Amino acid sequence: MTGRVTISEVDGIRYLHLGTEWIQGAMRIADPLHLELEYIQQMMVWWLFEDEPKHIVQLGLGAGSLTRFAYHYFPDAQVTAVELNPDVVRAGHALFALPQPDARLALRIECAARWAAAQPAHSVDSLQLDLYHANSYAPALQSPEFYQDCARVLTDQGMLTVNLLGTPAVHRINLERLEAVFPAVVWLPESHDGNVVALAFKDPPSIDFSELELRAQQIQLVSGLPAQSWVQGLLRWMEHYT
């Protein structure tokens, strides 16, 4: 995530920008743990399938929303965030309630592709990709080789969520590349901001929607996330694409 960090505030929401009008992250000032943006909420869809991850990794820090959330709601997990722009990390600490690194939280200032290529295999349970430059027209990293490295670092039951923002062609190219690497890829309906969140599995699950509904209810009770809408989105995907 490169570019000059700028900040705006509207109606109690603080926004992160990289020198353009494009929003790179948001935080409700009165409730920093709330995931403000719809697609950011959807990035947690993996929670329906895994509630005890040992290592959660965020590539692309943004306003730190997912990192704050994971650090709080998964106290037994190691949390790692990888961000190229040190000014984004500094802004996170100063303006977006990003915790300081400790025994559970690691913040790496480096290229996400370099990080992924250097990590040991089978070391991450949940990998979340939200990698964009200032103009946000397509993912900053979207090569087949990068997605292969992402798959390699995941455990056998690991999952990847990726934010896809751009034209339908951008969505299609990235979904095809994910499908070439992962044995199962699904995606939620496009958010009102035009984001498509894809969920890729190393090991395709047997989906019992009645069980997912129960898990979604528990997630909503614990965190307030609209998890039942994710179940409905997955059901719509299965009805349309299978």
Descriptive overview:
The protein is 35% helix and 24% strand. It is of the alpha/beta class. The strands form two sheets. A seven-stranded mixed sheet has the order 6-5-4-7-8-10-9. Strands 1-2-3 form a three-stranded antiparallel sheet, with no helix packed on it. The termini are far apart. The mean pLDDT is 92. It comes from Candidatus Paenalcaligenes intestinipullorum. One of its GO terms (biological process) is polyamine biosynthetic process. Keywords: Polyamine biosynthesis. InterPro entries: SAM-dependent_MTases_sf (IPR029063). This is Spermidine synthase.
Short description:
By secondary structure, the protein is an alpha/beta fold. It is built from eight helices and ten strands.
The level of helicity is: 25-40%
Helices, by number, come to 8
Which spans of ≥5 residues are poorly predicted at pLDDT below 50? Answer: none
> Helix-strand pattern, N to C?
EEEHEHEHEHEHEHEEHH
Q: Gap between N and C termini, in Å? A: 35 Å
Task: Output the radius of gyration.
Answer: 17 Å
Structural class category: alpha/beta
Indicate the topology.
Elements lengths: L5 E5 L2 E5 L7 E4 L9 H5 L12 E5 L5 H9 L4 E6 L2 H10 L9 E5 L2 H7 L5 E6 L14 H10 E12 L2 H14 L2 E4 L7 E7 L7 H15 L3 H15 L1
Parallel strand pairs: 4-5, 4-7, 5-6, 7-8
Antiparallel strand pairs: 1-2, 2-3, 8-10, 9-10
Keywords: Polyamine biosynthesis
InterPro entries: SAM-dependent_MTases_sf
Organism: Candidatus Paenalcaligenes intestinipullorum
